[in-house]
Amino acid sequence: MKNIIPTVAITGASGFLGVELVNYFLSKEYRVIGLVRNADQKSKINPLVEYREYDIENPIQESGLAGVDFLVHAAYIKYNSNQPNALKKNVEGAKNLISSAQVSKIKHTVFISTMSAHEDAISVYGKQKLEIEKLFLASKNTTVLRCGLIIGNGGIVCDMAAFMKSKHAVPLIGGGVQPLQIISIRDLCVAIDHSMSDRLSGRFVAANPTVYSYRDFYRSLAHRLNIKIIYIPVPYFALQTLLKTTELLHIPLDVGADNLKGLKKLTAMPSRDDMAKLRVDPVDLQTALNDTKF
């Protein structure tokens, strides 16, 4: 009997995590569908992937999830001064996607959330992720993964590394004592894979259980880059004033006041049992950094 090849669809397939997921599932011999904007242009990037049109601001086309067994929702609109309605758009986008997944009889769905999503969240990012978590958890056959800081080629950690290499300094906001848990992008891909294959329903923390401080993280990153850095103490209130001013003046920055709100409310979460259920033995911070190209 001929084996049936499983099909996984990934929203945000052209993003930092999405690209890694595409390559991971191709290596596992899945049929991969990338749900992206400008699908015709993306199809030239990887001929092994079937790209289909998807815009989080609009309901997905009826054919968008045709033939799909598994769905990974990794796309989101970033909140900033240019996207003040990001929360509403992301929530409505999730509702539309869940409805389409139910109509298409998707076997299992995975929503990529964040450890910034919790009941005490004050950032728009954390609040919207929490609201979307609840939508997915109310549906059947769904895994919600609250991810720690994702470390891999590209993404925010590589942006931090580039800044540190050019400036040999790093702003230490609020003393750098905020708790931080990490997960390598490879470990996260495995966690997503296992949550689908094992049909795990519910919410799981996808992160190494070790809790670092941001100062520890910067020290480890500097060690990986083989550079010495200067820590520049920055009080919360000073940075908050600066960020609000730049937003009012529409000065583009990679971070905003909402990022600062999220930083102030970071909290550690138990993850050892969840990672065991996901069948992932997560690498530590230094290993994740060593495996990343900077």
Blueprint (SSEs and pairs):
Blueprint: E1 7-11, H1 16-27, E2 31-36, H2 39-42, E3 50-53, E4 70-73, H3 86-103, E5 108-114, H4 124-137, E6 142-147, E7 149-151, H5 155-167, E8 169-173, E9 179-180, E10 182-184, H6 185-197, E11 202-206, E12 212-213, H7 214-225, E13 230-234, H8 236-248, H9 257-264, H10 272-277, H11 285-290
Parallel strand pairs: 1-2, 1-4, 2-3, 4-5, 5-6, 6-11, 7-10, 8-13
Antiparallel strand pairs: 9-12
Helix pairs in contact: 1-6, 3-4
Quick description:
The protein contains eleven helices and 13 strands.
What brief labels describe this structure?
294 residues; alpha/beta; Rossmann fold; two-stranded parallel sheet; 11 helices
3D architecture notes:
The chain has 294 residues and is of the alpha/beta class. It has one domain (7-288): 3-Layer(aba) Sandwich (Rossmann fold), CATH 3.40.50.720. The chain is 40% helix and 19% strand. The protein has eleven helices and 13 strands. It has helices at 16-27, 39-42, 86-103, 124-137, 155-167, 185-197, 214-225, 236-248, 257-264, 272-277, 285-290; strands at 7-11, 31-36, 50-53, 70-73, 108-114, 142-147, 149-151, 169-173, 179-180, 182-184, 202-206, 212-213, 230-234. The strands form four sheets. The chain has a seven-stranded parallel sheet, sandwiched between helices. Helix 1 (16-27) links the parallel strand 1 (7-11) and strand 2. The longest helix is centred in the N-terminal third of the chain and has 18 residues, at 86-103. The chain is globular, with a radius of gyration of 19 Å. The model has no long low-confidence stretch (mean pLDDT 90).
